[in-house]
Amino acid sequence: MSSAPLSGSASRASAVRDAIAITRMEGGAPSAFCLDLLARYVSGEISGAVMRERMLKYVKAGAAELEIET
User: Fold this and answer.
1) Considering only CA atoms, which of 41, 44, 45 is closest in space to residue 19?
2) Whole-number Cα distances in Å, 66 to 24, 34, 58, 61
3) Long-range contacts of 44-51 (CB under 8 A, 24+ apart)
4) What integer pLDDT is reported at residue 67 of this predicted model?
5) pLDDT in the model for residue 12
6) Residue 20 lies in a domain
7) Which residues contact 58 (CB under 8 A, 6 or more apart)?
8) Residue 21 lies in a domain
9) Selection from 31, 36, 38 nearest residue 14 by Cα
10) Who has the most CB within 10 Å: 13, 23, 48, 56?
11) 51 Cβ neighbours under 8 A, 6+ residues apart
12) CA-to-CA distance for 66 and 70, rounded, in angstroms?
């Protein structure tokens, strides 16, 4: 039995669910900032490249450490 290929948004949603599951299995949890970016990616508002660029910029700016400390 073969299944139909996933649509763009369904494929992105599946990839995001997998990524979050892997992160949680490794003891991590995505930040609110990350979840927002992922939601925008799934909806098609931003591309994977834009999502990655914004995440790297966020982390390099040190916002992740500031968020944890407060």
Assistant:
1) 41
2) 21, 15, 11, 10
3) 44/8, 44/9, 44/12, 48/12
4) 58
5) 93
6) no
7) 33, 64
8) no
9) 38
10) 13
11) 37, 38, 40, 41
12) 6
pTM for the model stands at 0.73
Contacts of 26 (CB under 8 A, 6+ apart): none
Vertex 32: Cα angle to 12 and 18 (nearest 5):
30
How big is the chain, counted in residues? 70
Using alpha carbons only, give the angle 53, 7, 32 rounded to the nearest 5 degrees: 40
Instruction: Name the domain count of the chain.
Output: 1
Mean pLDDT in residue range 5-11: 76
Name the token pair of 57: 């910029």
**What's the pLDDT tens digit per position in 27-64?**
999 999 999 999 999 999 999 999 999 999 888 888 65
Please give the Cα distance from 31 to 3 (Å, whole number): 33
